Amino acid sequence: MLNRIFGLETEYGLLIHEDRPSHSPTWFAHRIRDHLFRVQRQGVLDLHHRGHDEPPGNGGFLTNAGRIYLDMGHLEYASPECHSLTDVVASDRAGDLLLQQAIEDLGYSDQVSLIKNNIDHETDATFGSHENYLVSRRFPFSRRGLAPLVTFLVTRQIFTGSGRVGSAALQDAWIQMDRLLVPRSSFGAHHVSEPPFQISQRADYIVNDFFEWVQHNRAIVNTRDEPLADPNQYRRIHLLLGDSNMAEYATALKLGTTGLVLQLIEEGHAPQDLEIDEPVEALQEISQDQERRWLVQLQSHKTLSAVDIQERFLDCAVQHCRGQDEETDWVLAQWASVLHDLRGDYQKLVGRVDWASKLWLLDCFREAEHVDWTDPMLKSLDLEYHNLNPAKGLYHGLLEQGRAPRVTTDRLIHLAMEAAPKNTRAYGRSELVRHLLNEWPASATDQLPAPDGLSPPYVINWSIFQVRGHAPFSMPDPFKTYLEDVRTHLERAIV
Amino acid sequence: MKYSMMPERREGPVDPMPKSPRPLEEGGGPRRPETGSPDKDSLMKRMRKVDPKQAERYRQRTGE
Question: Is A273 a catalytic residue?
Fold first, then answer.
């Protein structure tokens, strides 16, 4: 899409199919990562400390220019930088498939399942699906400038949510008041009774409108300023409130609509009279509304439904963005179609919207087996929707039957497992990773850190890399491929 | 209602990696689920195979 770089980061859960497992999910995560890098040689492991929780060998960059690593015990995949929705959907599913194939290669398929969701029902743990959007440094990153984005994000869950059975316990939350952090509970936050089903997985865990932390006190808009690009030109909008989507269609629509709303804000065309009175509460109330009326109280004292609000954003996007490129027109058409169908029977959305697919499956099961929402089997079915094993997963069952529309193909996904998009910085990084794989035998990275006591032979980051003995190579512009420059640089380098 | 596939992506500075497929003539979208259809029976079969205790076993660390 026009002037946009997209990226997705996904933390996966691991389900162990044993009553008394001999190994933890984290143990399996280590084996899967090691298999990917040391046996399959899908990329190069970091040989340096990336941070206090990322020692050498914790993860590395792939030939597709994305990353696989362990984060808080979870396997995490970060897609390469993508300039189109087609690329980012293919790259996202490529990460799923890389990890699923590693499990199958290792012979672990009967022992462990890879679950692409964001919660566990037992301990209320949550883990993220983070979205990245590159915007201009001139983007109005202030409470006032971001107000339309908050309204859009609170209400977009009606088509981006993955749905879940039940809810999480009330989360600890702190609110920044001037320079003080005060507990949210002192402002009268209350816990509603547990709903049988809600449309979002992450809504229960979002406790602030703006904040910079990512592991606690999660906010609708994360305010960490880390562009991973030239900070004079770019800002990276980093969102952690979204759910991991199984449906390709939902992934494309989530990123596409959000990209267009960011464009409306950048260009001064976003609707300005839609500020929500209490955005955090509205996020949770919409998610848990069993009647799916999704009413929202605005600061102007008007009450609108989430569908009404989304239609206001759609109208602005049609007026200002239509015709700028084919992907934009695809997003506008599908956005209108989904909003239209959200006013009717939710079953029309099965296959396109994850919460609707899951709810339909659960309703079918409840009806056939005569069970109510308190039956613990429903939580297990909720998980199975996200199982990436194509022979088991319920979303994969819908896909197999042609009920879930594709926005990419298996061929493109397989290509994206090994190749980077050829129109972003990822292409240059991919060239570097391939070069290092050719230069370094598999055994060389078995000894971590660097065995000779010198500086690591290579250090790779999103916007810069260095090969030992040579100057750092900077890649500050994600829209440039740097391919020829990287090749020239590497020809001169002696590894 | 017909759903179209994503349009062909635009050319990048060099040959782009993926070429998205052309729209399917009859649309690639889902059919409305029908009760009692063979498709539904196959999904029910998948659901009945699920271990009822797996949600109890699924205990993860909190991430980001």
Answer: no
Residue A279 host element (H or E): helix A279-288
| CB-based contacts of A386, cutoff 8 Å, min separation 6 | A13, A115, A116, A117, A162, A244, A246, A393, A395
Nearest beta carbon to residue B20 from set A26, A405, A408: A408
Dihedral-angle region of residue A245 (phi above 0 means left; psi in -120 to 50 means alpha; beta otherwise): beta
Could you give the ipTM of this predicted complex?
Answer: 0.89
pLDDT at B56: 95
Q: What is the pLDDT of residues A127-142, one digit of tens each?
A: 999 999 999 999 999 9
Cβ contacts (< 8 Å) between B31 and chain A: which residues?
402-403
Q: How far is A486 from chain B (nearest CA, A)?
A: 15
Question: Cα A414–A418–A422 angle (5° rounding)?
Answer: 100
- What stretch of H or E contains A328? helix A326-342
In this prediction, residue A215 carries a pLDDT of 73
Number of residues in chain B:
64
Q: What digits encode the pLDDT tens for the residues A336-349?
A: 999 999 999 999 99
Domain spans in chain A, listed from the N-terminal domain onward: 1-116+389-399+407-495
Which residues are bridge partners to A276 per DSSP? Answer: A298
CA nearest neighbour of A420 among A330, A489, A484, A483: A483
Distance CA A421, CA A141 (A): 29
* Integer Cα distance of B64 and B60 in angstroms: 12
Q: What is the pTM of this model?
A: 0.91
A122 and chain B: CB distance < 8 Å anywhere? yes
User: pLDDT (tens digit, 9 = 90+) per residue, A396-441?
Assistant: 999 999 999 999 999 999 999 999 999 999 999 999 999 999 987 7
- B25 or A27: whose pLDDT is higher? A27
Rounded to the nearest angstrom, the gap between the alpha carbon of residue A307 and the centroid of all alpha carbons in its chain is 23
What count of residues does chain A have? 495
